[in-house]
Amino acid sequence: MNEQDQIIRVPIPSELLKDGIATLAIDDRDIVVVSEEGGYRAIDRWCPHEDGDLGEGLMFGKHIKCPIHGYIFELTKGQCLNQLNIRARVYAVEVDQEELVLRPLS
C-alpha cells in the first residue's frame, strides 16, 4: 500500500468546531480528532490496552487519558506513558479548505 492509499480526507465535523473533539468512523477505522494549539491532532479511537473509548477520554496538553484504566497517550507519537510497550496509531492532520487530511504516523 502506498502513502496515497493511507491518506484520509473527511469534511471538518461540526462537533470538532463546537466541542473541540470529534469521533470519525472511516471505512474500518475509528479515529478521534481533537483541537489543540490552533491545529488538530488525531488518534485511533480505541485504546490498545483494553479498548476504552478515547473519544470519551480526558484531554490535557498534548495527551489524552483513557476513561477505563487511565492510560495516557501522547497525541504526537502515540506512546503510552503508563506502559512503554503500548502505542496507539496517531495521525498528522492538515486542513485543506473544508476538509481534514489525515496521514498515519505510527
Helices and strands in order:
Blueprint: H1 3-6, E1 8-11, H2 14-19, E2 21-26, E3 29-36, E4 39-44, E5 58-60, E6 63-65, E7 72-74, E8 90-96, E9 99-104
Antiparallel strand pairs: 1-9, 2-3, 3-4, 4-8, 5-6, 6-7, 8-9
Please explain how this structure is put together.
- It is a single chain.
- By secondary structure, this protein is mostly beta strands.
- The protein has one domain: 3-layer Sandwich (Rieske Iron-sulfur Protein), CATH 2.102.10.
- It has helices at residues 3-6, 14-19; strands at 8-11, 21-26, 29-36, 39-44, 58-60, 63-65, 72-74, 90-96, 99-104.
- The strands form two sheets. A six-stranded antiparallel β-sheet has the order 1-9-8-4-3-2.
- A hairpin with a 2-residue loop joins β5 (58-60) and β6 (63-65).
